[in-house]
Amino acid sequence: MKGHLLRNPRVWLGGLILAGLGLVLVGPLRWLFDYGALVEAIRSWGNQAVILFVLLFALTTSLGIPATLFPIAGGAIFGLFWGSLWSLLGATLGAIAAFGLARYLFHDWLQRRLGHHRFMERFNQAVVANPFIFVLAVRVTPFSPFSIVNFLFGLTHIQAWHYSLATFIGLIPSIVVYTWFGVAGDQLLTTGNLLPLVGASLSLLVLTLLPLIWKRFRKHKVNTPD
């Protein structure tokens, strides 16, 4: 009986959800929703700040918990270059871990509940048609449901290396922009300079509009005769 319970995906999923809630409510993940507390905590880690930042970012992402504040905090603490690098590493590792959980631990259970939905069918079709480009396009969009998408890709037949590489490359623009917000916010507080924050905001706007611009460009190209 005990062995059967341990092999039941519901038990694992329930345990992960409870662990995630516990970390958010009473553990280190309570900082997820408090930017000031997150920055203060990371600074207090001293020489271990980088490794703990990356691991906590990855853990949070793998559990499906939103971690938008991490790259912003990384920019304020580590600067634009290093903050972007450590955030990119944490986000990518977390996305790969969530993908692995969905594919190897919860696949059958999730497939029975989500596989018949029309959205999932269309999602699968898009992945099959062009796996690398599709993942890349999804990752470039800054406001895509990052945590949910990680698990959805695990239910498809995409190769892990396609998913991992496209995720790493596709996350670069949004990670850099969010990190820039952290740098700009820190500069605003210390020097009163508003220009970096304006630049970061405009960059986020461009990044948000980019998929729409690309879609209209492709539509125009298809409708334009040679």
UniProtKB/TrEMBL annotation:
Transmembrane stretches, start-end: 12-33, 45-73, 85-106, 126-153, 160-181, 193-214
Keyword Transmembrane: yes
Domain VTT: 65-182
Pfam family for this entry, one: VTT_dom
First-listed, main subcellular location of the protein, grouped into a coarse class: membrane
Keywords for this protein: Cell membrane, Membrane, Transmembrane, Transmembrane helix
Subcellular location, record wording: Cell membrane
Domain of life assignment: Bacteria
Membrane-related topology note: Multi-pass membrane protein
InterPro entries (UniProt xref): TMEM64 (IPR015414), VTT_dom (IPR032816)
UniProt family annotation: Belongs to the TVP38/TMEM64 family.
Identification of the protein by name: TVP38/TMEM64 family membrane protein
